[in-house]
Design goal:
The complex is a heterotrimer of chains A (about 325), B (about 350) and C (about 475). By secondary structure, chain A is mainly α. Chain A is about 70% helix and about 5% strand. Chain A has a domain of about 220 residues. In chain A, helix 2 runs antiparallel to helix 9 and helix 3 packs across helix 9. Chain A is globular, with a radius of gyration of 20 Å. The mean pLDDT of chain A is about 85. Classes of the chains: A mainly alpha (about 325), B mainly alpha (about 350), C alpha/beta (about 475).
């Protein structure tokens, strides 16, 4: 019962915050719109990475996957003439990158963090190069409107609320992955794979194959998130489109203790704080009180605070990040 | 470790690094070819521009100078088994510290000549170390992985430095940048016609000293023991928390110095641009440098020269080979990925050997 | 722990993912056509030169004879380089036009970071064929001085730079440095014009605010910011004087800009970036949420983020014409999303680069430097050697064609859409939008331009931090 009460505290507190902001003259509708958009790529990537880490591989190259897929997805959308096809290209390419990371982390016994750092550095160079090579313009590409993924308009009493179906999908994914992880034999195997790969191996389940599959899944979901950024959210791509969001997704994963559902919640909080930072920064009169540069750093402070507060009781899989060596 | 084994070890590592460089360049060539450019031409200008003439080589050394310190900074933490991605943010704060001490304090105290440089760099090291306190404490007290916390600290440092450069330490006559460090707090240019300054001596010295601290002192021993595994260190009766925090702070101080060397050792502005453009990425590139050097501070000196050369040479790819100069960063990333998997490299080498015989 | 082998489902998933990933990678690889050897814009611009109204050469001068030796000019860009659709692209546009008209070759150096400035300038200066080096952007000032002193036989021009001021303070004996020319613009005047335009739109359509998304807070941008705010206030005074009855009526309409505290009329934020469009999007989204009728893009490529924020509002409603609008900058950006960019504040960087090349070719560079103390000011009503030479204007339908033409050629080369719709459609929509804005608003803007030209309206020119603080105190 206590956990049930706890579950109610957060929404109630959030509602109070919204009311307070509305009283301060900030539109709750537009804040929620912005928050959900900002949440989506984080939530998608975080849910996938949570599962990946449960299985024992940690991929800190998510930021790189975001960047690369956000860019290539635009090319995919243009070539297929369809934004949804572009989203698929993003997911597939993300999956491919996840697959490579999975392979490196298992058979090749790579140091996972180093490989992830390498992927990030690679993406910071590859993306500007690719933008230049594919479209002849450095640093930026805005595709025609027809190949973008449009937002849906949901009528809510008197006002219209703009929402992407992928935001809904992110929530569905988080729920489904949570279900898989805790209610199916497969989930049991995934968790065992992170805790004691030796036992899983003895039981006849291929640790490497399972881990690679999870890494591919994690990469594909991050790829979907990256494609979402360029095709559905910003309507174009710039070479620093991810702005460190991959790491924020990782922070959501870590703070949640690798729980897909909880990481969704943290992704929303980050999205909301990002939307709020901009709403506050442009409010007349606020600039004299707080330097806007400091306002813009709120999302990062919030993320850190959340991690610091919530991480306390988290337990992580015993073999997380360790290459598994068969005897 | 005897000298002979050490030399063997170094030779193996060097061969690994060269192999990784080859892998990186090969994959990049495929990328260049895939879009219809000429890889031979691009790579020619990349290396010509980085190492081809004395002038460009001196500039390459100038690009390498701050990387030596951010590289050494990452290496220290890596010796303790931690990944200090925060070197980037610590370098920002180090640059700020350099400007505050080298600009305000040196002017106020009228510090003369070479002493001014030391005052400025003291400021850099202090602020860099201070910015490392947060992630270090979060790590040992709350168990938060340093990669996560230091990325957040990087972004906070970015906005904080931007705020400071735009506000409290702005140059009133040139509001697009911070105040400059005083002439007495600047390294002098070694050769006219190049941006290389005496800062490189300092950077090499600091890297070597870092190596010696890690190898010869008790603190260095403890740090390495922690890096070898927490259990080992605990059995040896070492306060692992203390060693980790020390490593992190030392790392932050070095990263801060890396930022400081940009404001004290790089003409023409001797200050921080309001865009932070002259100090961004110096930390991230240092991470690449350190990983390529197997986190050995002495090897860092050489790998910085390699990366500095790629960086400087990439300026030539754009005008003369029409290939986006940022590709050089992709090359660095590929090298790092290749180096993360010694198994694959060994496999490649075996294949090459078999093919040769 | 069950001893069952790995479930077939997950194997199937894994295999499918692998196959899909591999196939897509191949498809993407095959689908991408090889890029042309030369950068696109170069070729694009080569063909559009005839449509360009070239900066007038002072009085009847003979066209320079094509030089025997190779003659190259180098453009050293600021960070970002080509592709910002505004500042840097305009500089390359000027260089490319000069390349056609004068038969010179353009070499481009793109600065990745501020650390590249000096090495790039020096590399360019050491090339024996390169005679003129153009540094694009305010931040190159120090680097230009340094390298210009080192290479007295090469000519250097800086856009927005204040290099000669540095020479004056550091090397007073050499001032003005004869091989160095600063080219500056009167952005505050142009911004005042679009500020007036924006505020009158708000009055007309009953919106409470106008917005401005700015890049990194550097002094050049202060000129935009303060000019814009000043223009807004001027417009409201103008409206009060010329339409007193309407002023009274509009003042009673809830949510009209006339009912808003004068210091809150303009929503503005410095995003701290000239490249991350996501920040432009987030800032603009909040501004439109607060009912800004138009948002002024003062951050180059961030206009695309602003455009996305507009799209989100207008697309579900099926609008083809604003409000809401946004306002373009530097280049004519009206074609990016026709019907929703009410106008652009054009800063003709291209003319400056072109003119500098011309001066070198006719051998008058040093003469002009001496005459104008090394600073060429282009703006509204400015002259060079007795000939009108302007560099600031509000975009018109006529300018639009020049920039559409650029896109048409780019499409031919790339084989990919660059323009959002066919050129005739762009023209039609922009015209429709311009016609939908009441003519008295355009008349007001024209009147302000006339007053500025005649020196009867003084737009504040903030140069120092104190100036800006003062004007923010006055204007909000």
């Amino acid at each position: 019962m206590r956990s049930f009460v706890k579950l109610l505290i957060a929404p109630a507190a959030f509602a109070a915050v919204l009311v307070a902001l509305a009283a301060a003259g900030l539109s709750p509708v537009s804040l929620m719109e912005a928050a959900l958009l900002a949440m989506t790529p984080l939530a998608l990537a975080a849910a996938g990475e949570a599962l990946n880490q449960k299985g024992g591989i940690s991929n800190i190259g998510i930021d790189g996957i975001f960047l690369i897929t956000a860019t290539v997805a635009v090319l995919g959308a243009e070539d297929f003439g369809n934004g949804y096809a572009g989203m698929l290209v993003g997911a597939a390419l993300g999956g491919f990158l996840g697959l490579i990371h999975g392979f490196l982390s298992t058979y090749a016994k790579a140091n996972q963090i180093v490989a992830g750092i390498g992927l990030n550095i690679f993406s910071y160079g590859f993306v500007p190069y690719f933008l230049m090579a594919a479209w002849g313009f450095p640093g930026i590409r805005v595709p025609p409107k027809e190949v973008l993924v449009p937002l849906r308009v949901v009528p809510i009493t008197g006002t219209s609320f703009r929402l992407s179906e992928f935001s809904v999908l992110a929530v569905v994914f988080a729920v489904v992955l949570h279900f898989i992880l805790y209610r199916t034999p497969l989930g049991l195997r995934i968790r065992a794979c992170g805790e004691s790969p030796e036992a899983v191996d003895v039981a006849g389940v291929g640790v490497f194959r399972l881990r690679i599959a999870l890494s591919t899944l994690g990469g594909a979901m991050a790829g979907l998130g990256g494609a979402f950024m360029s095709l559905a959210w910003f309507g174009g791509v710039v070479k620093e489109i991810s702005a460190g969001r991959g790491f924020i997704a990782l922070a959501c994963v870590v703070a949640s203790g690798l729980e897909p559902l909880l990481s969704l919640g943290f992704a929303f909080i980050f999205g909301f704080s990002e939307a709020l930072a901009y709403a506050v920064a442009i409010t007349p009169g606020i600039k004299e009180l707080v330097p806007y540069h400091l306002v813009l750093s709120t999302p990062y402070v919030v993320t850190l605070a959340i991690v610091a507060v919530f991480i306390g009781r988290r337990r992580f899989p015993r073999s997380l990040g360790q290459p598994y060596v068969k005897d | 470790m005897s000298l002979r084994i050490g030399a063997l070890h170094a030779a193996r590592r060097l061969s690994e690094a060269s192999l990784a460089l080859a892998v990186g360049l090969a994959i990049s060539s495929i990328l260049i070819l895939a879009y219809g450019y000429d890889p031979a031409k691009a790579l020619y200008w990349l290396f010509y521009g980085g190492f081809g003439t004395q002038t460009v080589f001196l500039d390459s050394l100038a690009y390498a100078t701050p990387l030596m310190l951010t590289g050494a900074a990452f290496a220290v933490c890596a010796s303790a088994g931690m990944f200090n991605i925060g070197v980037e943010g610590q370098a920002y704060m180090g640059a700020v510290g350099g400007v505050v001490f080298g600009g305000l304090l040196v002017r106020y105290l009228q510090v003369p000549g070479p002493l001014g440089v030391l005052v400025a760099l003291a400021g850099s090291a202090t602020l860099g170390a201070l910015w490392a306190v947060g992630p270090a404490l979060l790590k040992v007290l709350r168990g938060i992985h340093e990669v996560i916390s230091s990325i957040m600290f990087n972004w906070m440092a970015f906005y904080m430095a931007m705020y400071l450069v735009r506000g409290p330490i702005v140059n009133p006559a040139r509001p697009e940048m911070s105040i400059s460090v005083e002439p007495s707090a600047r390294f002098s240019v070694i050769f006219r016609g190049s941006v290389l300054t005496e800062a490189i001596y300092f950077a090499v010295l600091a890297s070597v000293l870092t190596y010696l601290v890690l190898k010869l002192t008790k603190l260095g021993f403890e740090i390495r023991l922690v890096g070898a595994g927490l259990d080992v260190a605990r059995y040896a009766g070492i306060s692992t928390k203390k060693a980790m925090v020390s490593a992190y702070l030392l790392s932050g101080a070095l990263a801060g110095l890396g930022g400081g060397l940009i404001v004290t050792g790089r003409p023409p502005v001797w200050s921080i641009y309001g865009t932070l453009g002259n100090i961004t990425n110096v930390g991230f590139d240092g991470i690449g440098v350190s990983l390529i050097a197997a986190n050995n501070p002495v090897a860092v000196v050489f790998s910085s020269v390699l990366i500095g050369g790629l960086w400087n040479g990439s300026r030539f790819m754009e005008p003369y080979a029409r290939v986006s100069s940022e590709l050089s960063r992709a090359v660095i990333g590929l090298i790092v990925i290749a180096l993360s998997t010694p198994e694959v490299l060994r496999l490649v080498r075996r294949l090459v050997m078999r093919w040769k015989t | 722990m069950s001893s069952k082998p790995i479930s077939p489902t997950i194997l199937a998933v894994a295999i499918t993912a692998i196959v899909v990933a591999a196939v897509t990678a191949t498809v993407v690889y095959v689908a991408v056509p090889p890029a042309p050897a030369a950068t696109v814009t170069t070729t694009v611009l080569r063909t559009v030169v005839h449509t360009v109204t070239v900066a007038p050469a002072p009085t009847p001068t003979p066209t320079p004879t094509p030089p025997k030796a190779k003659f190259k000019i180098a453009v050293v860009s600021d960070i970002g380089g080509r592709g910002d659709l505004s500042f840097n692209d305009m500089a390359f546009k000027g260089a490319d036009e000069a390349a056609i008209d004068f038969g010179v070759e353009v070499v481009e150096f793109i600065s990745k970071t501020e650390l590249d400035y000096i090495p790039n300038l020096r590399t360019a200066a050491m090339d024996p064929d390169i005679k003129l080096i153009v540094g694009v952007g305010f931040l190159l000032s120090e680097a230009l001085v340094e390298v210009a002193l080192e290479f007295p036989n090469k000519f250097f021009a800086g856009i927005d730079t204040y290099s000669q001021e540095i020479v004056k303070s550091k090397h007073p004996d050499k001032y003005p440095l004869p091989n160095l020319l600063d080219i500056k613009y009167e952005e505050h005047k142009g911004s005042a014009l679009v500020g007036a335009l924006g505020c009158l739109l708000a009055v007309h359509y009953n919106y409470p605010h106008i917005g401005a998304v700015l890049g990194i807070e550097i002094p050049v941008l202060w000129k935009f910011e303060i000019g814009y705010k000043w223009g807004c206030n001027w417009a409201i005074e103008w409206f009060k004087k010329n339409f007193p009855a309407e002023y009274e009526a509009k003042s009673r309409v809830l949510g009209n800009i006339l009912t808003v505290d004068p210091k809150s009329r303009v929503l503005w934020v410095y995003t701290g970036t000239f490249s991350d469009i996501t920040k432009g999007y987030l800032a603009a989204k909040e501004m439109y949420a607060k009912n800004a009728v138009a948002v002024y893009n003062i951050a180059g490529p961030l206009g695309l983020g602003i455009n996305q924020a507009v799209e989100e509002i207008v697309r579900p409603k099926g609008l083809t014409v604003g409000p809401p609008f946004w306002i373009g900058v530097d280049a004519n950006q009206d074609w990016i999303n026709p019907g929703f960019i009410v106008a652009s504040m054009m800063k003709r960087v291209d003319k400056g680069v072109y003119y500098a090349t011309y001066l070198v070719l006719v051998g008058k560079f040093e003469e002009v430097v001496r005459k104008y103390k090394g600073v060429l000011l282009l703006g509204i009503g400015t002259e060079v050697e007795g000939v009108p030479m302007e560099g600031i204007s509000v975009s018109t339908l006529a300018d639009l064609d020049e920039f559409i033409e650029m896109g048409v050629t780019a499409e031919k080369i790339l084989g990919k859409p660059v323009l959002p719709m066919p050129p005739t459609e762009i023209r039609r929509r922009v015209k429709e939008m311009r016609d939908s804005v009441p003519s008295w608003i355009w008349a007001a803007v024209a009147e302000l331009e006339r007053l500025i030209r005649e020196g009867k309206a003084q737009v504040p020119l903030p140069l120092t931090e104190d100036d800006v603080k003062y004007w923010r105190g006055v204007l909000g």
